[in-house]
Amino acid sequence: MPNLLPTCDMLHFMDRFDRISKIGSTGDGGVHRPFGSTADLELRDLLQHIAREEIGLEVHVDPIANIWGIRLGSENLPAIVLGSHHDSVPHGGRFDGPLGILVALEVIQTLKEYGFHHRHPLAFVSFTAEEPNPFDVSTMGSRTIAGRLTKEHLLQVTDWDGRSLQDAITAAGGDLTHIPLARKSKSDIFAFLELHIEQGRRLELAKVPIGIVTGICGIYREHITVVGEANHAGTTMLRDRHDALLAGAQIALALEELVKAAQTDGLVGTVGRFTITPNAANIIPGACDLMVEIRGATSDAIHRTAQSLAKATTAIAKQRGVVITHDVLLDQTPQPLAPELIELMKQAAHTQTIPFQSLFSMAGHDATHMASFTHAAMLFVPSIGGKSHCKDEFTEMRDVELAINLLIQTVMKLDLLSSLDI
Ligand SMILES: [Zn+2]
Question: What predicted TM-score, i.e. pTM, was given to this entire model?
């Protein structure tokens, strides 16, 4: 049977991928493009250029500096939006984020060139600051349009060096004083589709090119501060010490034990940031800062672990004579994705005989917040060796091609519908 569906052109896809991978390149295969960096700003310019000049989309930047590119449809309907984020973790990989944006642009361009007359507007979005950043606000762009971050809160945010978020957002083309205008609803966005690398090894091990995501894990992040007593490392006897580092280390180990003991599928805990003061060879550490993160498939499992950790820290504080304080930075509930969209993607996979696996995402994504107010879905492509957030991040372009063609068909079917509510 002849293939009547439009298919993408991987040559210009790879050309674009190479162009954007040069921005913020670390020279060893990775990129360094955190939110607010020069590379972030440079890539924003390039993405707008591609969307406007190479694809012919109407481009604008919203108050939180998300980049939007829209191709109007024939009817006054909410938009079908595809996208992801373009920022990276410090010294991260080339694929996490931008791949989803280039796929979104490719889907829209292919449909345009095929002459597909769509009823809904088709849009791409590149979200601001998805990754953790010096402002300690991740998934900033998607959380803002979902109404989960307020103008009042954002206007008070500064980075570790005291730079205001307003300055960084203004440099990126937004304006925090207009944040309420960034808010979106179901009447603006009919459906959101995000392609992302898996960042694990499940698809690679199963030798399956596509993952259809059924839901996204909950993420809980807590900043713990330990205040002990800095003192002379030679003359202070062990019994007189209030070593903040040792208390912090005990907290990290306690977290590992709690997660192991919980024996709950998918539950993980990490201390990813650990700083001590004054950090000198001959001084007992007087203070310690930890960033604790817990992820899981249920809020219940996450909260039970956080509560047990709080109990453990109380005991550690008593044992070492230190003061420990907690500040919850993020408490994101696990988010199921839209069953109607999952079904459409499965149908497209069957039609094109693309093997797929349904799986749960253990990484947080912008789709989590989009799913809080509209229908959202995600596709994963395999990460070779499960590597992510590092220079060795890699995904085969043949898998990306399958994902683009699957999304093209999904969008075409989706466009026929005016409602997804059961
Ligand atoms: Zn990402």
Answer: 0.84
| Same domain membership, residue 371 and residue 409 | yes
**In this structure, are residues 367 and 377 in contact, taking their beta carbons and an 8 Å threshold?**
yes
Ligand 1 is a single-atom ion; what residues have CB below 5 A from it? 96-97
Assigned domain for 2 exists: no
Distance 301 CA to ligand 1 centre (A): 24
Asked if the structure places residue 232 within a domain, the reply is yes
Look up the domain containing 90 and give its range: 10-216+334-415
Q: What would the two tokens of residue 61 be?
A: 């930047």
Number of domains composing the chain: 2
Asked whether residue 366 carries a pLDDT value surpassing 70, the answer given is yes
Please determine, for residue 364, whether its predicted confidence score (pLDDT) is greater than 90. Answer: no
Average pLDDT, the chain: 95
- Tell me, yes or no, whether 319 and 401 share the same domain: no
Which tens digit of pLDDT belongs to each residue from 201-229? 999 999 999 999 999 999 999 999 999 99
Same-domain pairing of 264 and 339: no
Q: Cα of 382 to ligand 1 centre, how many Å?
A: 14
Tens of pLDDT along 63-93?
999 999 999 999 999 999 999 999 999 999 9
Q: How confident is the model at residue 1 (pLDDT cuts 50, 70, 90)?
A: very low
Distance in Å, CA 196 to ligand 1 centroid = 7
CA 99 to ligand 1 centroid distance, Å: 9
The answer, yes or no, to whether residue 3 has pLDDT greater than 80, is: no
- Ligand 1 centroid – CA 269 distance (Å): 19
* Statement to judge: residues 207 and 235 lie in one domain: no
Distance (angstroms) between ligand 1 centre and the Cα of 199 equals: 9
365 alpha carbon – ligand 1 mean position (Å): 6
